[in-house]
Amino acid sequence: MDPETSPAGPDREHPEDAGLLGLVFLTRVIEPGDETGGRWVRERGAAEVVRRLREGARALPGVSAKRWAGLCARAAVADPRRDLAVARAAGVRFVAPGTAEWPGQLDDLGDARPLGLWVRGGPSLRMWALRSVAVVGARACTEYGAHMATTLAAGLAERGWVVVSGGAYGVDGAAHRGALGAGGATAAVLACGVDRPYPPGHTGLINRIAEQGLVVGELPPGDHPTPSRFILRNRVIAALTRGTVVVEAAYRSGSLVTARAAQRLGRHTMGVPGPATSALSAGVHELLRGDAVLVGDAAEVVELVGDMGELSPERRGPVLPTDLLESRTRHVLAALPARGTVTATEAARRAQTTGDDAIARLYELRALGYVERHGDGWKLTRQAMISVRGGRGPC
């Protein structure tokens, strides 16, 4: 029997259909992240919770009479078949816990786990979530923040990682665009129905994400975002991914909620540092003073969240010609002053070696073009000044 067309209630369908309709019904009635509602479903099952809400007579434990009345009022107008029909028309599917496409890591949220997810886009949510990283940050980001989010996301996408963010202005949008621009995979987790992109200014971007990736949300079709829904959405981003990177965040940034949720869930938490004088980096720096790890590019992110052996390259400054000299020869070279000459005896004393050793090394340095002999004195050549001092003259 088709659960979208049957006249019976969700509790009178085929058990599988009834279970699906019950969860769809509850996404319309219970707010995302409601641990009380999640506990009801865990302890009593979705069908029993639906029945009690429809009857509305006796409240389930853990809520006041006023709140129970509000839930029952929502239940009275909830129509799961209509929601499924609207979703199907918009190319949206409902993914329930325990099904083949459900990402098992969301179960780490306990009773705050989503009752189900509405998904728009072709790829498997479960498979994509297995190798995903969240890139989040300030909406009113700086050019630096947008640049870092874009390059980080592009680098992650090029390495085969899915970039997850919230579809918002600022860092979120830059991260999505970076992944898409690199021809990679990205997923947007929204705080509203996935059939109505928000913010409106990102309609084109979110539609493009749906075509090339995934748009995910807990709320049924047509539902609108609220401040609390944005905050609660962030726990899904944190739980869905292997780690969260915060690019720019002020002290009260919602992206810090994502990072702290990731920490509670045992996920990796990373931060991209900014200027110490920037208020938009203050929240990131606070994270870095705690358990978050400083990262500067995609390779460093992958080293943390990836598999064994996925190491970032060793970071070193430029190799100077003098680095190739034997250490005692470098000591003799360093003994020569920036201006003027010194005798071999004085060079030996400064380099803490013998006179014969100093003379031998000075002739070696002359052959390499680093020093010149002027009578009994030795001085640095212009080549040595550039190599040793970096062209900046005396230090």
From TrEMBL:
Residues 94-304 form the Smf/DprA SLOG domain. Pfam families: DNA_processg_A. GO terms for biological process: DNA-mediated transformation. SUPFAM superfamilies: MCP/YpsA-like. It comes from the Bacteria. InterPro entries: DprA, DrpA_SLOG. Belongs to the DprA/Smf family. This is DNA protecting protein DprA.
